[in-house]
Amino acid sequence: MPDVSKAVLITGCSTGIGRATAERLAGEGYDVHATARSPESIEDLAARGMKTHALDVTDEVSMDAAVAEVEKEGPVGALVNNAGYSQSGAIETIPMGSVRKQFETNVFGLIRMCQLVLPGMREAGSGRIVNLSSMGGKLVFPGGGIYHATKHAVEALSDALRFEVSEFGVHVAIIEPGLIVTDFGETAAGSLAEVDDHGPYADFNAEVARVTATAYTGSMARFGAGPEAVAAKISKVLSANRPHTRYKVTTSAKLMMGMRRLMTDRMWDRMVRSQYPPPKPES
């Protein structure tokens, strides 16, 4: 980002993509502001010269305070909306509290963070907003309906925002990772502990947990990448004079999104049926 603010605010830096992004951008000379719900989880980043802040994207006061702290030194030059997780399970079995929590984290927090940094970016006449979506924002696997809904929302919001802020010198880009080898799969599988695992969906939810967990460790993992691959794409967004609107990350994302574009809905349903046993009436 030549001749503009080098302050980069990143959400969700305790592990995975957020941490890898903070490390890479700090190494490239950006003024990195790494955030996490638990500040102790990023103390080592502070020890390495990065600025760290407590930030919970489900808490209005926390978001306001973090942005205000960064803006004491000037406008936010780039916002990386990375915080998020996956809630798995058949839609009928997921408690509405868990559904709301998923949207609060993956969608509403992202919207609010954009709202908070945009006044400063508009005044400066420059800025970059990088929203972490997923290949799951363009296709859907059974048992992931709630998570996929949040990522579809991120895609739509980013497309609208890109148009709305472009004349103010603010660029919006979407990152669409495929399989990223982090603890994401374990977290997604673990989220099934919140669902009602009795009744006709019990076997289906158990299989969703198994497929989700093994996707990140089994044969499919060779089509994935580490979080550093996503960090590299985010670096490109910040350094490019004219960033792309979307960046796919990993072979798995390119393959799966390409397949989905070529398939009808019924073709896709037949394909996923071979991977997931559909729920059936109890005998």
Task: Describe it.
This protein has 283 residues and is α/β, with parallel strands linked by helices. The chain is 47% helix and 13% strand. The chain has helices spanning 16-27, 43-47, 60-71, 96-124, 145-165, 184-190, 202-215, 227-239, 251-262, 265-273, and strands spanning 7-10, 31-36, 51-54, 78-81, 127-132, 170-177, 246-249. The protein has a seven-stranded parallel beta sheet, with helices on both faces. Helix 2 links the parallel strand 2 (31-36) and strand 3 (51-54). Helix 1 (16-27) crosses helix 8 (227-239), helix 3 packs parallel to helix 4 (96-124) and helix 6 (184-190) runs antiparallel to helix 7. The protein starts with 6 loop residues before the first strand and ends in a 10-residue tail after the last helix. The model has no long low-confidence stretch (mean pLDDT 92).
List the helices and strands and how they pair.
Elements: E1 7-10, H1 16-27, E2 31-36, H2 43-47, E3 51-54, H3 60-71, E4 78-81, H4 96-124, E5 127-132, H5 145-165, E6 170-177, H6 184-190, H7 202-215, H8 227-239, E7 246-249, H9 251-262, H10 265-273
Parallel strand pairs: 1-2, 1-4, 2-3, 4-5, 5-6, 6-7
Helix pairs in contact: 1-8, 3-4, 4-5, 6-7
List keywords for this structure.
seven-stranded parallel sheet; 283 residues; 7 strands; globular; alpha/beta
Number of strands: 7
Q: Strand order within the widest sheet?
A: 3-2-1-4-5-6-7
Task: Indicate the mean pLDDT.
Answer: 92
* Terminus-to-terminus distance: 62 Å
* CA-atom Rg in angstroms: 19 Å
Beta percentage is 5-15%
